[in-house]
């Protein structure tokens, strides 16, 4: 294992020198081979020398000349490997050195083992600052982050170093003790390697396939082999030559079988090495993403063509006519042919001990979707779109094709993609642009997909993919009605959120960007389409719509507060959607936290009169309180509201909001804290209690909003009547909140 010091002090120039020397060795063997063929071998073949001895000599001379040829191959392969090594090491070593340089620029020192240390003396002058403890915590976390990044960088160099070693041994024909002994027993000497390979990644792909074939044959890898297999996948799953070489050698069917076998080992047969097996499948998934990656197309000026545009589609069509697309096209076709084939997977086959469902097999597309979601998810949006369309086309012919007995959700079995369409949509969410193109109602294909996936009538998708059983007289087992999984529509919800917000909802580090026209179009269509379903809107989409509404919070807040003529959105649709979201405690909490950001941000809108932003704040709070009341009354009461108040504001909703400043963020966080305290305070009250005014129910939140408003607009308020800091602003926001409640009451019934 290379150390940090090794990486920081290594000199790479000798690799270039050595590569040139090996090229010269190859040239020397070529000269010897030419000379030997003309001056020596020709003697046995020119017809002057005849007889048995001539024939014997001819064979020996040909073998000698072949060694000269093999020497050329081996020498030039070694030269190629050394040049490749120089290129790889240059990039990887530079990355570690750049990390070190950047860390030092931010007042961190790096010790000889690659650990980062912050100079805490720089914080001493701020010891009495209220944010001092947080600054210390941030610095300690930064130490950990820098150390981890440097460690990962050093590991990447070591991985590459092991790959170079493997390739050099292979090119030189260096074998293990037993292989060498076997060759000697068969009379195979230690000659030059006529089949030497100069591409490191191709050599590593062959080595990876050796381990894959062992697993497919049911053999167990020892700790050393398991570690090496992980390294091979980790070091190369982003390399096209490695990925396509390895996958072509396996073939699509064995790739699915291998993935299933590895999952069997991880989750059933060898759980003590679970992490190692999951790392292997992650590498296999990433290799599939790399091997099927569509290149980035550019226009005549070198500008990238945006996915889904007409220019992109034309470039993609042209690319499909080139040899570079052969892997993509063949694998898509072969995977489609295997999509409905059945395969063994123990999590399904052993789900039911006895009776219906015992020994059940999974479909090819279920194995593929499981594999796709086990990697980093960096698939080309074109590939995910094509595969998802192929799955949908298959299930339209047989809506029960994916049905299995048993529940596949949660931390135990939720990793298995028993619903491959939903899982594929989840992978799609990692590329928000791809998700937006896929679900864009402005295109014929997008509209058809949207209505199929999100509809709930004729022509809509059948989400009931769980087979159940019933018993006649408690004895005879018969087929029961199909049911939904507990995590139904999880992938769809992620894809819809990504498409409408431009943010991958599964990435905790994602940050919002300005919405595209497609994002806005999908948001408005979703608001209309799903609010139109009323109480039939799937409960599993409530959290997703809360995120989407938050992302478009400026328009939603303006509509809730009845600000503007015309309103940016349909108020009836916003009211119905808010009601549906409010049926679940967590969804309601997410939306309320998100709207606090939108409200506080609006206080800084210089295009609006200050008094209007205060009124709008109260109005929106009243709107949401009334929407919640209507959501929970009658037979629509949701059990999640019967638990103790558990919503925790993590700040994650901020990821979906474009352009919120730091000051507004801190203000909204304070408002959200006050709101949560309000919820806790009224925990003992009935949720549908109509005896309190909105101001009484939201006293802390409204006061906090008023204080935030005054902090921004105090210069204006001091010169106006009715906006005093000690009373006026509270009366004003109270009146607005109750007005918002009453106005929403006119849409949704009495409170």
Strand elements, count: 8
Number of helices: 30
User: Fraction of residues in helices?
Assistant: 55-70%
Question: How far apart, in Å, are the first and last alpha carbons?
Answer: 69 Å
Main beta sheet, described? Answer: 2 strands, antiparallel
How would you describe this structure to a colleague?
This protein is mainly alpha-helical and 751 residues long. Among the domains are: 4-186, Ferritin; 541-750, no CATH class. The chain is built from 30 helices and 8 strands. The protein has helices spanning 4-9, 13-39, 52-105, 132-171, 177-185, 200-216, 223-236, 240-250, 252-269, 274-291, 310-319, 326-338, 346-349, 364-372, 381-397, 410-413, 420-428, 432-439, 444-454, 490-501, 517-531, 542-551, 553-560, 571-581, 585-602, 610-632, 662-681, 694-697, 699-717, 728-748, and strands at residues 108-110, 116-118, 342-343, 362-363, 404-405, 466-467, 469-472, 476-479. The strands form 4 sheets. The chain has a two-stranded antiparallel sheet with strand order 1-2. The protein has a two-stranded antiparallel ribbon with strand order 3-4. It has a two-stranded parallel ribbon with strand order 5-6. Helix 24 (571-581) crosses helix 26. It is globular and about 120 Å long. The protein starts with a helix and ends with a helix. Mean pLDDT is 88; it is low at 687-691.
């Amino acid at each position: 294992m290379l150390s940090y010091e090794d990486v920081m002090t290594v000199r790479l120039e000798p690799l270039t020198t050595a590569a040139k020397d090996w090229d010269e060795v190859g040239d020397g063997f070529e000269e010897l081979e030419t000379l030997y063929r003309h001056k020596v071998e020709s003697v046995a073949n020119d017809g002057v020398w005849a007889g048995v001895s001539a024939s014997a000599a001819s064979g020996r001379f040909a073998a000698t000349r072949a060694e000269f040829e093999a020497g050329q191959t081996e020498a030039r392969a070694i030269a190629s490997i050394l040049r490749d090594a120089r290129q790889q090491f240059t990039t990887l070593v530079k990355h570690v050195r750049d990390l070190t340089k950047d860390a030092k620029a931010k007042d961190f020192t790096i010790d000889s083992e690659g650990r980062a240390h912050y100079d805490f003396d720089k914080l001493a002058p701020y010891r009495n600052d209220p944010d001092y403890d947080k600054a210390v915590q941030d610095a300690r976390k930064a130490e950990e982050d820098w150390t981890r990044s440097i460690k990962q960088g050093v590991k990447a160099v070591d991985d590459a170093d092991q790959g170079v070693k493997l390739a050099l041994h292979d090119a030189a024909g260096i074998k293990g003790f037993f292989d060498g002994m076997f060759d000697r027993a068969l009379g195979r000497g230690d000659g030059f390697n006529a089949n030497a390979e100069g591409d490191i990644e191709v050599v590593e792909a062959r080595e990876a396939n050796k381990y894959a074939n062992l697993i497919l044959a049911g053999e167990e890898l020892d700790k050393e082999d398991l570690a090496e297999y992980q390294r091979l996948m980790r070091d190369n799953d982003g390399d096209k030559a490695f990925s396509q070489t390895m996958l072509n050698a396996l073939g699509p069917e064995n790739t699915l079988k291998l993935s299933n076998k590895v999952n069997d080992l991880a989750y059933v047969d060898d759980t003590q090495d679970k992490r190692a097996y999951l790392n292997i499948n992650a590498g296999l998934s990433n290799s599939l993403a790399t091997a099927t990656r569509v290149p980035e197309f550019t226009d005549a000026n070198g500008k990238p063509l945006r996915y889904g545009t007409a220019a992109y589609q034309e470039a993609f069509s042209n690319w499909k006519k080139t040899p570079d697309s052969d892997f993509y096209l063949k694998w898509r076709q072969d995977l489609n042919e295997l999509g409905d084939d059945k395969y063994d997977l123990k999590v399904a086959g052993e789900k039911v001990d006895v009776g219906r469902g015992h020994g059940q097999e999974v479909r090819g597309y279920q194995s593929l979707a499981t594999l796709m979601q086990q990697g980093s998810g960096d698939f080309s949006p074109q590939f995910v779109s094509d595969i998802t369309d192929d799955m949908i086309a298959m299930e339209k012919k047989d809506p029960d094709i994916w049905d299995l007995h048993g529940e596949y959700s949660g931390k135990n079995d939720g990793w298995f993609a028993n619903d491959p369409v939903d899982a594929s949509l989840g992978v799609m969410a990692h590329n928000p642009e791809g998700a937006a193109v896929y679900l864009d109602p402005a295109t014929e294909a997008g509209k058809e997909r949207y209505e199929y996936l999100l509809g709930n009538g004729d022509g809509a998708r059948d989400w009931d993919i769980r087979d159940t059983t019933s018993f006649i007289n408690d004895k005879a087992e018969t087929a029961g009605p199909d049911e939904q999984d507990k995590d139904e529509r999880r992938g769809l919800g992620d894809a819809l959120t990504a498409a409408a917000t431009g943010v991958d909802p599964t990435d905790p580090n994602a940050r919002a960007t300005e919405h595209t026209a497609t994002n806005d179009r999908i948001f408005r269509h979703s608001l209309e389409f799903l609010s139109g379903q009323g109480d039939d809107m799937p409960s599993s989409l409530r959290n997703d719509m809360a995120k989407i509404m938050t992302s478009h919070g400026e328009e939603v807040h303006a509509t809730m507060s009845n600000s503007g003529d015309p309103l940016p959105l349909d108020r009836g649709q916003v009211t119905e959607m808010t009601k549906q979201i409010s049926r679940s405690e967590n969804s309601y909490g997410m939306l309320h936290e998100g709207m606090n950001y939108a409200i506080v941000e609006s206080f800084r809108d210089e295009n609006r009169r200050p008094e209007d932003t205060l009124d709008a704040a109260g109005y929106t709070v009243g709107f949401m309180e009334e929407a919640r009341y209507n959501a929970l009354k009658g037979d629509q009461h949701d059990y999640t509201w019967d638990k103790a108040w558990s919503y925790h504001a993590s700040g994650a909703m901020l990821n979906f909001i474009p352009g919120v400043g730091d000051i507004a963020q801190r203000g909204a966080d304070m408002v959200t804290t006050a709101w949560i305290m309000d919820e806790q305070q009224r925990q003992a009250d009935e949720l549908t209690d109509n005896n309190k005014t909105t101001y009484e129910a939201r006293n802390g939140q409204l006061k906090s909003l008023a204080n935030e408003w005054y902090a921004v607009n105090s210069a204006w308020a001091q010169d106006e009547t009715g906006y005093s800091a000690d009373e006026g602003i509270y009366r004003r926001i109270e009146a607005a909140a109750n007005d918002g409640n009453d106005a929403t009451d006119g849409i949704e019934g009495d409170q």
